[in-house]
Amino acid sequence: MEKEELINELTIIVSPYAQDAEALAHIQEDTDFIRDLKINSANLVDVVLDVEEKFGIEIDNDSMARMLTVKAAIRIIEEKLAAGAGK
Amino acid sequence: MLPVLGNDVVDLKQASIDSNWQRKGYLRKIYTVQEQELILDAEQPATMLWLLWTMKEASYKVINRLTGVRNYSPLSYVCRNLVIRDTDVSGMVTAGNYSLYIKAEITEEWIHSVAVWKKELLDNLKIHYLSNSSYYPDDFNLSCAGYRLTKDNTGLPQITNLHTSMTSEASVSHHGRYAAILYPKSL
């Protein structure tokens, strides 16, 4: 999947939780889920679960721990998809 | 001694709107098996869930200040020694090599937890509750004459005693209808 496509999918996932519409409209790789999009930390787990469901992957705790930005999320999704494809 | 403090408030009504903790996979991403049992066996599972959440979140703020590390790992913050007497809660949270001391308050409407890294600090806390709005720092400065809430050069909240000119770090949390500001009583 292309990076741009991944960002589009992520944007759809984070939209219901993002509290900063301006930051959401300008989402890019460096966007921080909490600092920029103002996602409540109690809802970050929903983003993780939605990503798991959307991409059919399992995000382990170490990966979840670093999933604070769009860039980190993309890297994790790509890693998990690649690992799944290699099975 | 560095008065590193952390706090977290949850508006229970807001939380019930924003989060569906019964969704598949939710509990085990955030809570240990023992914590899940505490939640599911509680008379009011949602209240127990948000109590444990605020304990973890307040503790994260302390460790984040001590280490400078940002991450999202609520599962590695383990709630222990929970004692609940009416509305007052005490307990501990351990995370890696750290042990934090917790004091919390539960009401019908909100839960507020405080975490400190030295037990003595629990006796040196002042908590100021406010209505949440984008003006809550101004509201604090108006209602607490003699104190001024600002941010330090790294963006962390701090409070200055205008009479002594002493400044100390503070911890601020806001959610839904509530805001809570925590600072050392000795300031």
Describe it:
The complex is a heterodimer of chains A (about 90) and B (about 190). Chain A is mostly helical and about 90 residues long. Chain A has helices at about 5-15, 20-25, 40-55, 60-65, 70-85. Chain A has a single domain (about 5-85), classed as ACP-like (Non-ribosomal Peptide Synthetase Peptidyl Carrier Protein, Chain A, Orthogonal Bundle), CATH 1.10.1200.10. Chain A starts with a helix and ends with a helix. The mean pLDDT of chain A is about 95. In chain B, helix 3 (about 35-40) runs antiparallel to helix 4 (about 45-65). Chain B has 5 helices and 11 strands. Chain B has helices spanning about 10-20, 25-30, 35-40, 45-65, 135-145, and strands at about 5-10, 80-85, 90-95, 100-105, 110-115, 125-130, 145-150, 155-160, 165-170, 170-175, 180-185. The two termini of chain B are about 15 Å apart. Chain B is of the alpha+beta class. Classes of the chains: A mainly alpha (about 90), B alpha+beta (about 190). At the A-B interface, helix 3 and helix 4 of A face helix 2 of B.
Number of domains of chain A: 1
CATH topology descriptor of chain A: Non-ribosomal Peptide Synthetase Peptidyl Carrier Protein, Chain A
Number of domains of chain B: 1
Q: Report the sheet with the most strands of chain A, covering strand number, pairing sense and barrel closure.
A: none
Give the helix/strand layout.
The complex is a heterodimer of chains A (87) and B (187).
Chain A: H1 3-14, H2 21-25, H3 41-55, H4 61-65, H5 70-85
Chain B: E1 5-11, H1 12-18, H2 26-30, H3 33-41, H4 45-67, E2 78-85, E3 88-95, E4 98-106, E5 110-116, E6 125-131, H5 136-143, E7 147-151, E8 157-161, E9 166-169, E10 171-175, E11 178-184
Antiparallel strand pairs in B: 1-5, 2-3, 3-4, 4-5, 6-11, 7-8, 8-9, 10-11
Helix pairs in contact in B: 3-4
